[in-house]
Structures are given as C-alpha cells and as structure tokens.
Design goal:
This protein has about 375 residues and is α/β, with parallel strands linked by helices. The chain has helices at about 20-30, 45-55, 80-90, 110-115, 120-125, 135-140, 155-165, 200-205, 215-230, 235-255, 265-280, 285-300, 305-315, 335-350, 355-360; strands at about 1-5, 5, 35-40, 60-65, 95, 100-105, 115, 130, 140-145, 165-170, 175-180, 185-190, 205-210, 260-265, 360-365, 370. The protein folds into 2 domains: about 1-60 and about 100-210, Rossmann fold (3-Layer(aba) Sandwich), CATH 3.40.50; about 260-370, Helicase, Ruva Protein, domain 3 (Orthogonal Bundle), CATH 1.10.8.80.
Length: about 375
C-alpha cells in the first residue's frame, strides 16, 4: 500500500520484532490505549513498521475541503471551522481519504506542532484564521516521532496531551480554536543518546525494546526481502498482498468487535494486585493494561478478557514503568509475568467475593455495568 502515492515496505514482510508489531496492531485497534514508544538501535525496522501499519488501515471518511480530517458522522468532534460551516450551510460534503502518516519534522517548534492563530487578522477583520500544524495533519492517522528523546520536553508533552485528550486547543489573546487530534503516536529513540524524563516515559502507554536479530537465517531473510523491494516495489508488494489484505481485514474486524469485549471485576482486581505487587507508581499503567487486554481479546476474536490478554498487555505496558536502580537493566520475562498474573488472580479471588464478580462487568469503553439477572 502507499504513503503519499508511493508503495511502502509491507508490514507483514517485516522479519521478527513480533512484540513491536503486536504493540502497533493493538494500538491501531484501540486508539484510546495511547502512544507506543519503541526503544532500540537504528536499523531495526521501527519507522518501516510504523509506515507499514498506516498503509494497512482502511480509508477514512473525512469532511471535504477540510484540513483536519474531521469525521462527517461525528459532529461532536468537529473542528471550529466545520461547526461554523454546518451552522451556515447544513450537511457537509465528504470524501474518502487514505489514513495519514505524518512524520514530525526535525527541529519542529511548538507553533509548527499545534498550529497558529492569525491574531492580526482577527483584530483587524474580525476573522478567525488558523494555520494547521502537525497535530491537525495527523488526526485519525499515525504520527511518527523519531528520536523523541532529543525533542524539547514541552513539545513531547504537547503531543502526549493531544493524544490523550483527542483534541488540540490553541488559545491566543482571548481567541481560541480547537480541532480533533486522535492519532496513533509512535515515538522511537536510541537509549544510548539519552532517555526521556520518567514523567514523560509513563505517559507513553506501551513501550517495546527492540534490537538487531542475531539468527543468521532471519538476517538473510531481511536482506533478501529488502533487496527484492528495492528492485521492484510493485512486484514485491503483489507477492505480499494476500497477507496484507488478511491482516488489514483482521484489524478492521477487531475494531468492530472491541465495543463488545467484556472484562470482569476479577480482571481489574488481578491487574491491580499485580501492579501493586510490582510497586508501580501511579495508576496510568493499570488502565493501559486493561485497555490493551480488551484490544488483544478483540484481536483474537473473543468477547471476554482472559489472563492471557492481561499477560501480553502487561508485557507491553511495564518495561518503562518498573522501578530500577541506576545502571540496572529491567529483565522481566514472560514466564515471570505469567507467574505474577496467576498469583494476582489467586489473590483477587480471595479478596473479592464471587457474587461481586458475577454481577459486574465492563466493556472496552471503560464503563462498568450491572449484569441483568
């Protein structure tokens, strides 16, 4: 599939890096999970996977002649311009558009990211004119930020705020403008070049550490696929098209199933027990694991969260949240997490009566509800 009219390396052709691909797919299923931080050396397919994911996603319906990719079927999320146009002329025209993939320019300023208001025009002519920024272009798509650890902390904060709130609001001299800003935020960094502050690290929902692949056969496959792609992009993509189509359809199906996925009070207790036992500060991680677990259940075509979903979600949500001493490496294996989830589940069953779990369940929207007798 294409990025700005050019064929990109297929997502399904990326060799290995299964944890990174899983994090990207789950975030594509549920935008509300939050951003994905990928840490590792150069040449490990970080940007390739992000571009490939964007190309996989289905076309989106947008308001025609708009700069913010507003969804014509969701008027509550419209930008200030679309609201004004609707009030003046009724229904808005719409078109289909490819999911945007936006890469943050190196050295981008805050105004370049959030956009700018033309104060002079507003004062002189009484017109509200807004120059869209990167967040506007990325709405309902993928925002890719390379070397996020080298950006000014304030810029990172602004992007994370927009990703969490789903809206970008710019205010200057008493004049304000807002537009939707729902996107998959993918940040990459090389830890050898410095780390993010803990406060910013925690605000990335998921984190994956990637490295070079050491298996000789896999390294040969990487060379073969890249050379074939460079030689003839169209032919290489045609060979991968069936797998790409299947994956795209599976993501679309999981998105539709997501609102029907249920979790129990016992599931929440299991997550809470595990996080408390690990000494994780704050509560953002608990919510991230629950949202990611529901997305994984939808990915596997199930209507209820299981311990497997919680386990795999924890594997993605914990690497940057576990406490460590300076110069210590955090190495929490999937087997260790499996034991922690099992112990937390056992503890939660002791602490929470069966009748409470039976009479309560929540869905992927995060709302609990009483089950009908």
């Amino acid at each position: 599939m294409t990025d700005n009219g050019r064929l990109v390396f297929p997502f399904t052709a990326v060799v290995g890096q299964e944890r990174m691909k899983r994090a990207l797919i789950l975030t594509a299923i549920n935008f509300r999970i939050g951003g994905v931080l990928i840490r590792g050396e150069r040449g490990t397919a970080k940007s390739t996977a992000a571009r490939g994911l964007a190309a996989l996603l289905p076309d989106i319906k947008v308001v025609a002649d708009g700069a913010f990719n507003c969804d014509p079927d969701q008027p509550a999320s419209w930008c200030t311009n679309c609201r004004s146009r609707s009030e003046q002329g009724g229904p808005l025209p719409w078109v289909w558009k490819k999911v945007p993939f936006v890469e943050l320019p190196i050295g981008a300023t805050e105004d370049r990211v959030v956009g700018t208001l033309d104060i002079e025009r507003a004062i002189q002519k009484g017109e509200r004119r807004f120059e869209p920024g990167v967040l506007a272009a990325a709405n309902r798509g993928v925002l890719y930020v390379d070397e996020v650890n080298l950006l000014d902390d304030h810029i990172v904060d602004v992007m994370l705020d927009a990703a969490a709130m789903g809206v970008n609001t710019v205010e200057r001299e008493g004049i304000s403008f807002h537009h939707p800003a729902r996107f998959i935020l993918v940040g990459t960094m090389n830890p050898e070049e410095g780390d993010l502050r803990p406060q910013l690290l925690d605000r990335f929902a998921l984190c994956v550490d990637v490295g070079g692949i050491h298996d000789a056969r896999s390294r040969m496959a990487i060379m073969e696929r890249n050379l074939a792609f460079e030689q003839d992009r169209e032919e290489f993509y045609e060979e991968c098209a069936p797998q790409e189509t299947m994956l795209a359809q599976r993501i679309a199906d999981a998105r539709r199933l997501l609102p029907e996925v249920r979790y129990s009070r016992s599931d929440m207790a299991t997550i809470a027990e595990m996080m408390a036992g690990l000494g994780v500060d704050g509560h953002r991680g608990d919510l991230v694991i629950l949202k990611t677990a529901t997305a994984h259940a939808a990915w596997e075509e199930r209507h209820h969260v299981t311990d497997r979903d919680i386990l795999l979600a924890a594997e993605l949500a914990l690497p940057h949240r576990l406490k460590r001493r300076p110069f210590d490496e955090v190495q929490t294996s999937i087997d260790q997490l499996d034991k922690m989830v099992a112990a937390a589940r056992e503890q939660s069953q002791d602490d929470h009566p069966e009748e409470d779990r039976a009479n309560y369940e929540g869905d992927a929207s995060g709302e609990g509800r009483q089950k009908k007798a």
